[in-house]
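Customer escalation, tier 2.

The customer says the design service returned an amino acid string that "doesn't look like it belongs to this structure." They asked us to rerun it and document both sides in this ticket. The original structure tokens are below, unchanged.
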């Protein structure tokens, strides 16, 4: 019985049939990807990854900028809080150099020896509030403008990337 089965598979006709199936064109076409398909898919994947890398760098830059603005607003609010503790006479003579006050400060937030911000404070008698009112203007600039003349910064703060611009009135 086993000889009959073996002889059936060993016939010329069946061997030729096996050869035809192996060399059939439809079988070879579905065997894998073509070179063009691989190149197109690699191009698409590359475009996606390059876009993601650009989005990543943009998000890092925006996070740094928002952190800088948050710190600048905090420094401006801190100065306003300090000025609100002063009396009317002390506000009239602000800045008092003898006690270490300044209207133009270079601030190093983390004490690493690098200037982080420049804070400019202007206190003037108020034009709108006649009785012991003071107009207070506080501007915070990035360290790139630490050597820029103060008049230029006050005149056109938007040209010098002002990080915080607060104008308020303090009354006594």
């Amino acid at each position: 019985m086993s000889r009959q089965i073996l002889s059936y598979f060993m016939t010329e006709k069946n061997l030729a049939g096996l050869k035809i199936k192996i060399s059939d064109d439809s079988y070879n076409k579905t065997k894998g990807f073509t070179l063009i398909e691989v190149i197109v898919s690699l191009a698409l994947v590359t475009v996606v990854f390059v876009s993601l890398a650009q989005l990543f760098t943009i998000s890092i830059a925006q996070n740094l900028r928002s952190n800088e603005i948050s710190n600048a607003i905090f420094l401006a609010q801190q100065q306003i809080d300090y000025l609100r503790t002063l009396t009317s006479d002390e506000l009239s003579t602000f800045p008092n150099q003898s006690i270490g006050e300044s209207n133009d400060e270079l601030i190093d937030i983390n004490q690493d020896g690098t200037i982080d911000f420049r804070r400019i404070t202007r206190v003037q008698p108020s034009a709108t509030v006649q009785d012991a009112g003071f107009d207070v203007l506080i501007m915070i600039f990035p360290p790139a403008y630490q050597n820029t003349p103060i008049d230029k910064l006050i005149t056109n703060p938007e040209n010098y990337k002002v990080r915080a611009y607060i104008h308020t009135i303090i009354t006594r």
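Tier 2 assessment: The sequence is consistent with the input. The CA atoms of residues 24 and 30 lie 11 Å apart. Residues 35-84 form the longest helix (50 residues). Sent an explanation to the customer and offered a walkthrough call.
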